Amino acid sequence: MRKILANRKEQKRRERERNVEMKPINNNTLTALTSLKTTIPLVFGMVFSSDRLYVAIAAAVFATFWIVLNVFDQLLFFSPVVTFYLPDDAITGFILTNITSVLMGILVAMNMYIFRDSIRLKFDKSIFSGSLLAIASSACASCSSIGFLVTSTFGGFGIVTIDLLTNYQTPLRVISIVILLWALYHVQNKIIKPCVMPN
Amino acid sequence: MKNIRMPIIASISAVIFLATALALLISLSVLQQYDGIFYVYGQTQGIARGQQQITNATSSSNLLSLLSLISQGSSYQGSKSAPVTVIDFSDLQCHLCARYVKNTEPMINKTYIQTGKVALVFKHLPNRGFDSMPAALAAQCAQDQGKFWQFHNLLYEKQGPIDSGWANKDNLKRFASQISGLEMHKFDSCFDGQKYKSFVESDIALAHSLGFTETPSFIVAKSDGSSPQKIEGPQPFPAFKAVIDKELGGVT
């Protein structure tokens, strides 16, 4: 009986310790989120004022994604003449495309900064998932050859997939932006962390 | 050595930058507004180079002649003697086709069809979903009674998400009943009996023979079907204008 009581006491003590340990972690996350106001401009300054190359990389990636996504959205055409237009029904998609392209530009440039400084030799995985989702949702949303290819390859299942991607294009793009923002948060953490003095 | 190199690199960079800016200015030279929509377009490559010539144009020219298309039973707008034909391959469920119908078609109609310069022919390419084929069959049944364009405009106006049920058989019949002058018993018997299934399938075969897989896709050709030019996607009016004017020989 004493042993059981002693065990329970020990368990409670461990739980209390665990809770105490958890509190600083939660505080840290909260602090990290609130400190984004300071860290994001700091990271931007570190990356983009250190070398013009990163500005060029960001601009190139932005331009590439802007062109690809707008071609998929059927707003930008190269044949028979170079044409860009923005009808009413495409305004939301166009805004999301711009946000995605800007985020991609910033993220790739920041990852290149990390890569060149050899802090980490890995690209953030969420960049790929975010960009893939953005491209897939816009490509399939247009009644394009890609949609036809998927439909003809996978038959009925392909049609259902394309339907889902087309009908839920806007939410999917919002999700991709959230993923890219998450990637941005991680990348800025990676850049800023080596500057923080350990306790 | 480093001091000597720097101005050279800077000058080369400046030249590249200026050349890029100049190229952009030339290629995106025109900013115009039609009916409240801004278009940026340029013609640096030249229209002829930008066009994708249809490879089997000679063999398909007869199939693409206006009289041949009309005799097959395809729906059309405009004069039979119009010198240029625009053939529209569309799916009634496709939202990009609706974008074209809303933004570009009215301008083509006003500028070219009303003036007798262009005839617009509709061809079915139902590949967007399970309800696309029934919608095409229903539209063709409306054509049986000369009400194709009313039905076509009504479907694009009421268009919903793909395969969400907005274009199921019951709703298609309901849409048909909203068209004044359409005899429903004739429509129902045509639609239920899938009278135009082979017609729609021949339209799909024609589209595939021309290499079209996406909707909307267009052929702009002379009325005898010669000199066909492809336009793919819901392109704005200036793109159509460039091709149509070329087919008309520069006369607008």
How would you describe this protein?
The complex is a heterodimer of chains A (199) and B (252). Chain A has 199 residues and is mainly alpha-helical. Chain A has one domain. Chain A is built from seven helices and two strands. Chain A has a two-stranded antiparallel sheet with strand order 1-2. In chain A, α4 runs parallel beside α7 and α5 runs antiparallel to α7. The longest helix of chain A has 33 residues. The radius of gyration of chain A is 23 Å and the shape is flat. Chain B has 252 residues and is α+β, with helices and mostly antiparallel strands. In chain B, the strands form two sheets. In chain B, strands 3-5-4-6-7 form a five-stranded mixed beta sheet, with helices on both faces. In chain B, a hairpin with a 6-residue loop joins β6 and β7. In chain B, α7 runs antiparallel to α8 and α7 packs parallel to α9. The longest helix of chain B is centred in the N-terminal third of the chain and has 26 residues. The N terminus of chain B is likely disordered. The interface between A and B is large, with 28 and 47 residues.
